[in-house]
Amino acid sequence: MYSSEELRATLPPLLARSPRVRLPPDSSLASVLVPIVVSTPAPRVVFTKRTDTLSRHAGEISFPGGLADEGEAAASAALREAEEELGLARADVELVGSLPPVHTRVTGILIVPFVGFLENDPRFTPSPDEIADVMEFPLVDLMAHGSESEFEHEGTRFRTYVYEVDGHVIWGATARILWSFLELLGRSEGANGAVPA
């Protein structure tokens, strides 16, 4: 299992430093920040819970992020959105690299996820219009609670990655990004002779 010190040493080489993004036809570019608090021995992953009044993904648990402005680089968009949604200053985020993009075929959005280390314990000031709550889950708990299973949303059942932690359910594109991140760590542990959690 990874401590914050081990994560700082292990993760950067596993991520893309400058992602090459190919936008599919009729798709929009978006990016998210996967914030990881590494100021304590046990790393924590930060999520937001969106307000129930938003027109898209209301009430869902997600990473801070959103659509890129015209001509805006994906990494800049992730940092801008994290600042707008959480009050997280760009200077307080150490961008480590990016995970593989996730394409949401239903909404036609290509999401580029960026992992960022938070070296200091963050004090968030969430935007009340967008963010209902800010949640931090220990990395060890996320590694232990994920599965691929049948999930029902608005009367439709489909197979997806689902993480249930402390009564909260993470699914959809956020769960796919989280699975990609944790699967990368699991492969690295296996390559180093450790047993993945």
- Architecture, CATH level 2? Alpha-Beta Complex
Distinct helical segment count: 4
Q: In this structure, how is the largest beta sheet organized?
A: 8 strands, mixed
CATH superfamily: Nucleoside Triphosphate Pyrophosphohydrolase
How many beta-strand runs? 11
The CATH first-level class comes to Alpha Beta
Instruction: Name the helix and strand elements from N-terminus to C-terminus, one letter apiece.
Output: HEEEEHEEEEHEEEH
Broad shape: globular
Share of helical residues: 10-25%
CATH topology name, in short, is Nucleoside Triphosphate Pyrophosphohydrolase
> Cα-atom Rg, whole angstroms?
16 Å
Kindly report the average pLDDT value. 86
Q: How many distinct domains?
A: 1
Strand residue content: 35-45%
Instruction: Label the structural class.
Output: alpha+beta
Instruction: State the end-to-end distance.
Output: 7 Å
- The residue ranges in which pLDDT falls below 50 over 5 or more consecutive positions are 193-197
